[in-house]
Design goal:
The protein has about 170 residues and is mainly β.
Amino acid sequence: LPAGLQKVERNAIDNSNNITSTIFCKGAGKGSEWEDNWFRGSQTNTVWNVRGCIVKNNQFYVILEDNTAALVYGLVFNNKLVVESRLNYQNEIIPVKKICQYACRGVGNNISIIIPEGIEIIENNAFCDVQEYNVANLTLSEGLKTIGASAFESVNICEVRIPDSVESIGSFAF
């Protein structure tokens, strides 16, 4: 959505089929006349301050105005979901700082998830709806500060170590 968008009415974006979707907004937040229920659907993620996007190793990232990146859609490759720590975007090295809400839904069975050093935030529901899957190994690296509510809820994790840098763990995170 464009940065200058001032008015968005109720249910302007209808996602009543509950398909997971992400809305990319160039602006820093809602305009002055945005209604609270401007989209309909429970599995819609909104990412603000988007400058650009990049796909690397089956992962879809957005580049934000603060020169950081966020994973918005992750796919498993060779039984691993590896989040990048840095991206090359228009000849700039951009650090990846967060994993967005609903980024990695239903990612696979008997997989390893590797979250590298530098990721600071795993948003709410980032790995939701993987209850029938087993995660053999979940690597959370130093530097992680926030694990959002329901981030790994109902995920069968065989092994995880929470790093000393974690300051906040949301309800039902694991």
